[in-house]
Write a structure and sequence with these properties.
The protein is of the alpha/beta class. The protein has eight helices and eight strands. α3 links the parallel β3 and β4. It is globular and about 40 Å long. The structure holds D-xylitol-5-phosphate (DX5) and zinc ion (ZN). D-xylitol-5-phosphate binds next to β2, β8 and α7.
Length: about 220
């Protein structure tokens, strides 16, 4: 099955956000990945509600919102209202993850959990049945344009194995440093969704780059 491609708007030209979203609408991208950073959970601040509302105004594809923020329960209802189809919270930011997942389900969106490179997939053993999507960070969250961490392949394989036993519908998403070289290997290891920021937006022909990843 062809992978779900989710270009990360973090790498887009914010001065031309409408044009960038229209380009994604026209492309074979499946989702639009939206990185929200609070400067506390991660050492960087990206953007918040008004920018997401601007993206939503033009987007014709589902919005995949990745929350790199502390206490995400304060804001998830608002992100849902702004049109998020998938919302991922960070395992490391949620001491009551089970409750966070319940909240996301109640809001009617796909419930996602993102895990940092140092976090073992085994830690999801007791929540996997309640998760729609696991976002495996293949860089340390906070910045685009970083180098892919090779250990990720093993994590994908292990998580796919766990999912076979516990949640056959689970989507595995890879986020960080994805390019045409690692994409086929990630899919082969069991990934379903590929997020790509710089590789798409820094390329000469983003539409062709997206099509290449999809193929
Ligand atoms: C990193 C973000 C990623 C980022 C990926 O904290 O979660 O989604 O935009 O960018 P690239 O593809 O450039 O690594
Ligand atoms: Zn992300």
């Amino acid at each position: 099955m062809a992978p779900i491609i989710a270009p990360s708007i973090l790498a887009a030209d914010f001065a031309n956000i409408q044009k960038e979203v229209e380009m994604l609408n026209e492309s074979s991208a499946d989702w639009i990945h939206i990185d929200v950073m609070d400067g506390v959970f991660v050492p960087n601040i990206s953007f918040g509600m008004p920018v997401i509302a601007a993206i939503q105004k033009h987007a014709k594809k589902p919005m995949d919102v990745h929350l790199m923020i502390e206490k995400p329960e304060r804001y998830v209802a608002k992100f849902r209202e702004l049109g998020a189809d998938t919302i991922s919270v960070h395992y490391e930011a949620c001491p009551h993850l089970h409750r966070n997942l319940q909240q996301l389900k109640d809001l009617g969106c796909k419930a996602g959990v993102a895990i940092n490179p140092h976090t073992s997939v085994e830690l999801l053993e007791d929540t996997l049945q309640d998760i729609d999507l696991v976002c495996l960070m293949s860089v340390n969250p906070g910045f685009g344009g970083q180098k892919f961490i090779e250990r990720t392949y093993q994590k994908v394989r292990r998580l796919r194995e766990m999912a076979k036993a516990q949640n056959t519908e689970l989507l595995i998403e890879i986020d960080g440093g994805v390019n045409s070289e690692n994409a086929p290997k990630l899919i082969e290891a069991g990934a379903d969704v590929l997020v790509a920021g710089s590789f798409v937006f820094r390329s000469d022909d983003p539409i062709a780059t997206i099509a290449g990843l999809k193929a």
